[in-house]
C-alpha cells in the first residue's frame, strides 16, 4: 500500500492482442524521472488526460472517463486509446492505494517524444484533499472573462475547447487570479456574457425546479460529473436542461454548484462577492450520490 | 560532440551565489526519463520556454530571450529566472554540438513537481531542420480564427496570451489544421478580424515602404525575431511600426513574412490560397541578417 502511486504506460493500439496488456505498463517510483524533456507533454502540453475519483477502493465512472479520453484523442488526432489497457492499468493503480478514503487517479496520454510518432502514457494517484468544507459550506467564486465568444469551439475546433488537454496553464492562472481576489475558484464567462465552466469543473444551476448547465457547443468540456448528476436527477423525475445562461441569470439562481470528479459538488456560496443561496439538503443529496459507487 | 543534447537544471534564485552555478545542472541522455509524471509541465503545461537558434556555434540573442523568459515568469508567477545560470547552461549546451550548422536550443522552466514549490528546468538542443525552401520560395499560410477579440490579453491577463507557456496544444492543432488544408503554417486572426501571429511565429508585413507588425497589446507574444528585425531595419533608416492590420489589409500587402528564431524569415507566398508577392531581395537580406551573429 502506498498513498501516492505512479505507472508508466506504453499505449497500445485498440486492436492489440490481450496478451500484451500486462507487459504494457510498469509501476515507477513517484517523483522519479520518467518522461523525456522532449516528450511533447512537457514540451508542448500536447496530450490529453482524465482525473478519476477512487472512493474506498472503487474507481468512479471508468467508462465515461475513457469515453471522454477517446473523444479528446479524436479532437487532438492522437491514436485511439485502448480501453482494455486503460481499464487494467487503472485497476492495478487503484489496487495499490488503501481501500479506504478518497484518491485522485489521473491518466494521461501524450503525443510522445518529439516528433510524436509513439504516444507516452502514465497514471498518477494521490490522496484526495479534504473537501468537507467546500462540499458543505460551499465556495467563493469569481467570474473571469474566458476571452472567447460562445460557440467559438465549433467555429474553430483547433482551439481544442472540447478536449481535455494537458495545456492547462491558463486554467491554473485563472485559479491563482481567483485566490488573489480572496475567492476559492473561478467561473469562466464568454466574451459575450454567457457562463461557461470552471477551470477544472462544470457549472450546474438550479432555477426554480430545473437544473441547468452550459451546452457543450458553447465551447466547454462536457463534464463527466455533470452528466452523471443529470442522469441521476432525471431518473428521479427532476427537470434538467442544457441552456445558455448569462451571468445575470446565474446571479438570480436558486442554487448553483461547481461539480468535478474529485471535489464533487461544491455549492457556490458567493459569486463575485455577492451571496448565492446554498441548498444544503440538495447539496448533501448530490454528494451522497457522487460518493456512492458509480460505474 | 552530439547532434542532440539534453540538460536538467535546478533553477537557482536570482540572488544565488555564483559558486553554485556549475553544480546546478547536469547533462542527461537525450530521450531518457528525466521529469516526474506529476511535474506540472507534463501535468498541466504549466511552465515557460524559449527557443534560441545556434548558428555555427553562436547562440543568437541570448539577452532578449532571457528577458522574455523573465517576462513570461512574471506573467505566470514563476520565480524570476537567474540569468547568469541560464547563460552558463546555454553556453555549455551549445558547446556540446558541432561548431558548424544550425541548431535549435530550447530552454524551459516548469513550476515543478505538484504542488509546484520548487521549479524544474531543462535545455534540449536538436539539429535545425532544412529551412532553405521556406526561407527562399516561401510558405503557404492559412488564416485561422484565434477565438479571442483583439486586446483580450490586456482585459484578461489570466489567459497568458503574452507569455510563452508550455501549453501549446492549440498552437500545434492549428499547424495540423493548416497542413490538412494543404498549407505549411497558420496565421491566427482575432475574432474581430485583425491578424495576430502564427502559432510559433510573428507576422511582419510591408505596406509600401513601411514594415508593420501586430502590437503586443493585441494579445500576442512579442517576438524576439520581429524585434531584432525592426531594430535592424530602423538602423538602416527604414520605416517600421506597430499597427493593427485586418486580414484584408494583409492581403493587399507588398510582402509579408512569418518570422521566428529558428526558421528565420519565411515569406508568405500564398495566403488562404491566393498568391502574395514574395520580395526575394528583401527576404534574402533579412535572412542574411538573421543568420549573422546577433547578441
Automatic annotation (TrEMBL), chains A, B:
Keyword field contains NAD: no
One Pfam family it belongs to: Aminotran_4
EC class: lyase
CC annotations in GO: cytosol
EC number(s) given by UniProt: 4.1.3.38
Keywords: Lyase
One of the record's GO molecular function terms: 4-amino-4-deoxychorismate lyase activity
UniProt KW Lyase keyword: yes
One GO process term, biological-process aspect: carboxylic acid biosynthetic process
InterPro entries recorded: Aminotrans_IV, Aminotransferase-like, BCAT-like_C, BCAT-like_N, Class-IV_PLP-Dep_Aminotrnsfr
Family from the record: Belongs to the class-IV pyridoxal-phosphate-dependent aminotransferase family.
PANTHER family named in the record: AMINO-ACID AMINOTRANSFERASE, AMINODEOXYCHORISMATE LYASE
Protein name (Swiss-Prot/TrEMBL): Aminodeoxychorismate lyase
Origin species: Agromyces bracchium
